[in-house]
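User: Structure tokens for this complex, please. No commentary.
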Amino acid sequence: MKRRILLILAALAAFFLDAFVLPALSQNGIRPLFTMSLALAATAEMKVQDGMLTAFFGGLFTDLFCNPYIGFSAAAYLTAVAIMYGFVKKNGQRRALLILFALVAALAAETMIFLFSLAIGAQFDAYRLLRAALPSLVLEALLVYPLAAMLRSREKGRSFRK
Amino acid sequence: MRKLWNSRPMWIALTAIVLLIVLAAFTANGRGTEDGLFRTAISPVAAFLHTAQQKVGGFFIRIFTPSAVQEENERLREAVLLQQQQLALLDETEKENARLTELLNYVETNPNLHFVTASVIGRDSNPYIDTIMLNAGSRNGVTEKMAVITPHGVVGRVSEVGPNWCRVKTMCDEKMRISVMVQRTRDEGMLGGLYLEDGERIGTLLYYLPGKADIRVGDTIRTSGIGGVFPKGIYVGTVIAVNEEGKGSYDAIVSMDIDFLHLEEALIVAGVDEAIG
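Assistant:
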């Protein structure tokens, strides 16, 4: 239970970073979704339930305070977690492939967010979108590695398989 | 792959994703909680977070890009100051332009008079300002007792002259007297001395009108030309009160249009062309 509460607090902290700090530091709209990276790292290094919990609460905080609709960020982050879970379940914890797995999962989540935004009438400049979204995706995937390493050291080698 | 689809967490995740998408679609259409109690309940928190976002974001911007932001701020501040100075200068130039245009028009409509244009460079600290200094002197052909006027009326008479300056005794001086006439009736009199009420200057006194002179409120007073200092016909002021009760020795009170406290330019009458006049 304590571990779950800590994860929710971590999701809250990640949301704060996403909402307050990273926008101020972004250049040309390029900024990673820290919450998603944390959820992916938790999925890879802890239990899938931990990743889901982080994704759900992190996404929910984002939607509640930053978006005009509730639940979509949470759904997108959960999608990324599900894909990451599939990769890790099938291929094991191959750390060399961790960033690649994270990249695919983040791409799926970002695509989902893009499609939903399109569906509710948002308009995009394709060039600017790609110029900002693709580097953001790479940053999100790269962030997963140090976050996973950090969680790994906390878990002391414990994985979802055990 | 089959094993993956059979796993409970995967099904929980998929169910949650579907439910959340439905919820998102529901709220995105503005039907669900968006306008409902839930948003209302969290709005104070959201407002707080928004404020925090502005402050925290600004803090991090300052931390990570201090020089760039400071330089930008400094540049913008300087630009704003420069703009303000330019605006003030433009405003001042416009006002000066209006005043000088008025003087020029007056000069053009009085071709028989020769003027020296001068700016006010000093005043008495006396609140009633009985003398002012102008930036024209003997080098400009200014001599003592020359008349000083503006399009709004008589200012006074040159009382002292330097090489590049002169002092003018204005109509506010208690001892200043000029010969005037009522434009409508041509009755002549003497104007001078202040009419005060509660210490405030209301107008200038008009004396020595003929006994049966017909003078009314609103009559225009002009210089009569007697005495040779002030050319004939210069506008002086308007009658604002007639002394019908006979209190005091004056006949009427004349209001002068000139704002002596804010006078900035004046015309010194350097000569009169008698052939035209």
